[in-house]
Amino acid sequence: MRSRTAAARRRRSRRTLLAAGVSLPILLSTAPVAFAVSSETWDRVAACESSGNWNINTGNGFYGGLQFLPSTWAEYGGLRYAQNAHEATKEQQIEIAEKVLAVQGPDAWPHCSKVAGLADSDTSSQKTEIKSGSRVDQQSEDSQNAALVTTDQAASSSSARITASAPVVGANVTTAYRQAGSWAAGYHTGVDFAVPTGTAVRAVTQGTVISAGWAGSYGNAVVLRHPDGMYTLYAHLSSVSVGTGQNVAAAQQIGLSGSTGNSTGPHLHFEARTRNSYHAHVDPIAYLRSLGLST
Q1: Residue 154 clears pLDDT 50, i.e. is over it
Q2: How far apart are CA 90 and CA 55, in angstroms?
Q3: pTM of the predicted model, to two decimals?
């Protein structure tokens, strides 16, 4: 009874002060925000996605430490913090990432979730059955659903071999991976296949077009994201025959070889990447062999 009486007195006192025009302080909670996934796990995801730079904007269409697309950032409430993720704090980015994780599951970060252990989080089992689009596949609802079905089918059996094709048929490698030279990295970040202008360039395996068109020193280029979380890049094309957001099948023609951008002659420059970043390249021949190709 005493506690109720004391509470009533406090309420009457507050009303009296407000009626007298006395402003009262607004008390903000200083308790730390609790996340379903540990901050250390998100740090590992960011280390994989962006080398741990929470304010990164490389101009590749992804922003912040966890590499959000602007549409994903907006869809999950990020605009209340900043226009794009790289302008928000680490904690704010993690808050939005938790919402993405709850809906899409770890596949929103297909490669880095495995590397960082996010895929092992208990939260991954709580995702809803309705996926509103992955971090990369921001396209129309029908195309988006088709991409998710394709990805789910590819992942349904870990023992199933993904259908694959050489990026160009019957071509020899003329410049090897990591060959030293005057490239921006100080060495070659892919492999070059010697082919004449107009040779059909094909998707090495099924995937979704992340970008298609002019790409600076790469000339006309296409970047694909594949169900295994890998990315492939096809550069110096004379023409591009696919568009961003399009789903492609293994061996589907995505363009014609050429010599656009920084190129000294007709060829296909081919890269394999663990994420859509210039510095995330891996041995492309080893990747092709992992798909069952002998080239």
Answers
A1: no
A2: 8
A3: 0.48
